[in-house]
Amino acid sequence: MLIDLFIGRKYPWIFCRPNLDLVTLILAFTMILNRLIPTSGLSAITSVQVLRSFLFFLLFYVLLIMVARRQSSRDPTSIFFDPTKAYDPVYSAIRLEQAAFFIDAANNDTEPQIPGGPRQPKFCLGIATIARKGARYFQATVGTFLEGLSEEERAEIHLILFIAHTDPSQHPAYAEPWLYKLADQVLLYNASEVDVDRIRSLETDDAKIAGREKALFDYTYLLKACANIDTPYVIMLEDDLVALDGWYHRTQTALSSAEEQTREMGAANWLYLRLFYTEELFGWNAEEWLTYLLFSILVVCLVVCVLLVSRKYNAYARSVLPNMTILLLSGIFTPLLIGLFFAMGRVTVLPRPNGVHQMSKFGCCSQAFVFPKSRIPELVGLYTSKRIGYVDTLTEEYANARNEIRWAVSPSLVQHVGRKSSKGAHNDVSSHVKIKSKADLTVVEKLWNFEFEMNDAEALRAEHDAVKERAGS
């Protein structure tokens, strides 16, 4: 009979629901418990029957844990998180391979791949890069953002690739043909505009370790270059990213949604749209522990009330819900289920819905921002006045002080694949080492979007092709 119950022959509705909620689990357990305990003994449950109930729940609970482990293995906020698999570049590996073919084709092409004729770009897309010891991400980043774009989509992008070295030959991409065939503009330091000697002093290994001054200067320099392009939006990217196939049309859709939602809020403008974030920061926040506790107590009280009311007004319920059963269900089994709910992780049980949402807290980091051009002057002024600091930290402090609207698109459109820091060799970690624990990771390596790797390459390509077909018709 137990086998029949677990495979759903007796109660198929228990296991066919896509999301088992707490009330469903309680009702399911009550009905199954009724099958296990003879009705003749319900008026006085013996110790054997109580033990039987515990054993059955234990088996039921173990099954739930097995399901939870599978569902939450890629949730960094869950105790079932499995770093040995969650950090594997599944979809990223496909995109990197596609980017490699794209870059190879560009290197072998005799003509530039920049669209000709009159253009009115919608985006200035800027990527600043410096050489990293033992790692090359830049060309793959460029490749994933350009691979698969239609001619019309590429024509709507003004691509600026910034080699942020006083001696640009130090960067391996500087001598490679693809750089000049793919970029609308290869940006270098202009000695008439910047203090080259000062920048050179920031390129030493000791200065790179801090990295707060030169990185901010480079970001500002590129941001100003993009501001000189007549586009309504500026996309600022780091040089160690992977973009999903179709990022362009999804970004356009996200921007339309952000603009519409901003108008509905009665606001005049917004600060940025975030294309990347990590789920690492979206767990059960310690400062909200009282809220979690109160809701847990409320659920237990609700279960007690439901069981007592059912027993009072339903004759059948009176026969299957003696005091001991109610105590077990509400006092032991329900708290255990609540504990499992929290153990599965917030990202699993309360995932962010797809679309564009405000992200004024826990948004990290500065990998991929879209700024309205109208906000560029004040951001340039902010970074220039601060001179030293991290882009994301300064931007968030500024936004918090002014209560700025900040949007993020879910799911993430890009992945951060940089395993080697640009701030010095002491942070270098081999990207080929199998990750065994989060404790083995640097801060840089933890900047990972776990959902991104679950993308279906064929489905995304089909979606993108459909969008291009509609645009061309």
Give a verbal description of the structure:
This is Integral membrane protein. InterPro entries: PGAP4. The chain crosses the membrane at residues 20-37, 49-68, 289-309, 321-343. GO terms for molecular function: glycosyltransferase activity. The protein has 20 helices and ten strands. It is of the alpha/beta class and 473 residues long. It has two domains: 2-71 and 315-344; 91-281 and 352-472, Alpha-Beta Complex (Spore Coat Polysaccharide Biosynthesis Protein SpsA, Chain A). The strands form two sheets. An eight-stranded mixed beta sheet has the order 3-2-1-4-8-6-9-7, sandwiched between helices. Strands 5-10 form a two-stranded antiparallel ribbon. Strand 2, helix 9 and strand 3 form a beta-alpha-beta unit. Helix 12 runs antiparallel to helix 18 and helix 18 crosses helix 19 (391-402). The radius of gyration is 28 Å and the shape is elongated.
What is the fold's blueprint, element by element?
Blueprint: H1 2-6, H2 12-16, H3 22-36, H4 47-71, H5 83-86, H6 90-108, E1 123-129, H7 138-146, H8 151-155, E2 157-163, H9 177-182, E3 185-187, H10 196-201, H11 205-210, H12 212-227, E4 233-237, E5 241-243, H13 247-264, E6 272-274, H14 289-313, H15 315-320, H16 323-343, H17 346-349, E7 355-358, E8 368-372, H18 376-386, H19 391-402, E9 406-410, E10 414-416, H20 457-472
Parallel strand pairs: 1-2, 1-4, 2-3, 6-9
Antiparallel strand pairs: 4-8, 5-10, 6-8, 7-9
